[in-house]
Amino acid sequence: MGSIGFVGLGIMGSGMVSNLLAAGHEVTVWNRTREKAQPLVSEGADTVPSLRALAERHDIVMVCVSDTDDVDDVVFGDDGIAAGLRPNALIIDHSTISPVATTHFAAAIAERGGHWLDAPISGGSEGARNGTLSIMVGGTDEQLNRAMPYLEAVGTTITHVGPTGAGQLVKAVNQILVVVNQLAVSEALMLASAGDLDLEATLRAVSGGAAGSWMLTHRGPQMIDRDWSPGFTIDLQQKDLRIVLETADELGVPVPGTALVFQMYRALQEQGLGSEGNHALVKALEALSGKELGSSG
User: Fold this and answer.
1) Model confidence at 77: pLDDT above 70
2) Which residues, other chains included, contact 247 with Cβ-Cβ below 8 Å and sequence gap of 6+?
3) What is the C-alpha to C-alpha distance for residues 14 and 81, in angstroms, rounded to an integer?
4) Which residues are catalytic?
5) Which of 56, 89, 131, 192 could, after both became Cys, cross-link 19 (CB 3.0–4.6 A)?
6) What is the C-alpha separation between 52 and 67, in angstroms, rounded?
7) Taking 60 as the threshold, does the pLDDT of residue 165 lie above it?
């Protein structure tokens, strides 16, 4: 088994590290909030005092942080990964960030003798916990082959989608599909609720046909139970949607459905709901209609 560094122990990263350890890999972790590393240390992970020390120890480092600026900070900041980069080292970035920034980061690491894969992930906290993430990879075949033993420990669908930056662009495509589908699930269940249908029976009836989807199957039951615990928070979803809208603007592509969902999430953030799961989008429709999902129409 291999040895790898991992940066970022949030809702996704912690589950990924657990699966790397379960697969027999030696993992050194780093996180801004050091307390988050302790459960993983009990599973066998090691820690280091700095990002530079982590990079000096490993030829491959996985990164899973929140935003473009966070990647910039952990890689190129003072005492960051780049400061301790080994010759021919590989950075695998699982964060969802700007495709344009990704190409700049990769070029800067190449100048230092290293390599970069953009490998954003999808599948929610369940996928991270169960090792069933979908991973969309931009970069070279050679570096993907180096990364594959580690990617296979955390994901089941690993797709090489093109050169550097392509992974982040495919993630933007993914997020359009996620949020517009979540809007459809929200509208559909609101209609069913207002019509006094048995929501669980309705879900069973439509999930197996052409209307079926991951969001319907995984988030529909949570919505019916009014369980807003996040597989992915509204705040993080909004960060992704800002990237989608900026990218679409740069490419001249109209994305009116995505823009609508962005504004609905913004309204929920203003209500202090940003830490709830992205399926809480239905609460925006509840506010518009004066009806609550699950209550009598």
Assistant:
1) yes
2) 98, 99, 169, 172
3) 19
4) 171
5) 131
6) 20
7) yes
- Quick one: pLDDT band at residue 296, thresholds 50, 70, 90? low
SS3 call for 93: strand
Whole-angstrom CA distances from 102 to 50, 99, 208, 253 are 23, 5, 38, 20
- Collapse the DSSP code of 88 into the 3-class scheme (helix H, G, I; strand E, B; otherwise coil) and give the result: coil
What single-letter amino acid sits at 51? Answer: L
Q: How many helices (H) and strands (E) does the chain have?
A: 13, 9
Residue 269 structure tokens: 């953030």
For residue 102, the number of C-alpha atoms closer than 13 Å in the C-beta half-sphere is 30
pLDDT, one tens digit per residue, over 122-151 is 999 999 999 999 999 999 999 999 999 999
Contact assessment for residue 25 and residue 1, using Cβ atoms and an 8 Å cutoff = yes
Q: Select from 233, 205, 207 the least CA-distant residue to 218.
A: 207
Residue 230, classed as helix, strand or coil, is coil
> Is 0.85 topped by the overall pTM?
yes
d(CA 261, CA 180) in angstroms, rounded, equals: 7
